[in-house]
């Protein structure tokens, strides 16, 4: 990338509530979960919202069976990093559509949870400038960035008022994990091991994905990504985010 800052800034820590919104079970565990462990360690309140159950994620498993299994794996992986509130929307895995229906669902969740920090996964076209991103990630990331504003405006989705959801304009940052243009980072020296365990809870998914031993696959991946971030974060293993202040 051409316009990356030399050094990553520490992600702001003066907040109490975070809502993390992603498309699929495992999206948060490919990195962000180690940062979540650091946040819950200091007493922050973190909730997860999954737009799908990842039911199209395992070739050999039919969606009905797969969705229930992946929901269980997601709840277990959240518990490892101190997150007990895990909600699922019923959008269809693989064909999530960016649009007002998705924005409304996310705005409603933001009004319910009233977070200061919103986390999502990479909404940009590629990972690392090389690998084409998936349509679900792009749609959910973009809709989350947009819903931060929708949640604060009483005239957008006025039907939410009737559901007892008044505007919440308190989102101060949206932090995008896995972005090819990171600006900030979170030190995961203490959270790293729980990040490994958290991703390993997606065992059925990982076993279908690779012939490698699940633990070495997970450990190698997270060591590589947190180590690469360390070069721009004072040598400390880190999870990176592209942060949009509001
Ligand atoms: Zn995903």
UniProtKB/TrEMBL annotation:
InterPro entries in alphabetical order: GlcNAc_PI_deacetylase-related (IPR003737), LmbE-like_dom_sf (IPR024078)
Keyword Iron applies: no
Keywords: Zinc
Pfam family, one: PIG-L
Entry keyword Phosphoprotein: no
SUPFAM superfamilies: LmbE-like (SSF102588)
Gene3D superfamilies noted in UniProt: LmbE-like
Family matches, as PANTHER family: LMBE FAMILY PROTEIN (PTHR12993:SF28), N-ACETYLGLUCOSAMINYL-PHOSPHATIDYLINOSITOL DE-N-ACETYLASE-RELATED (PTHR12993)
Protein name: PIG-L family deacetylase
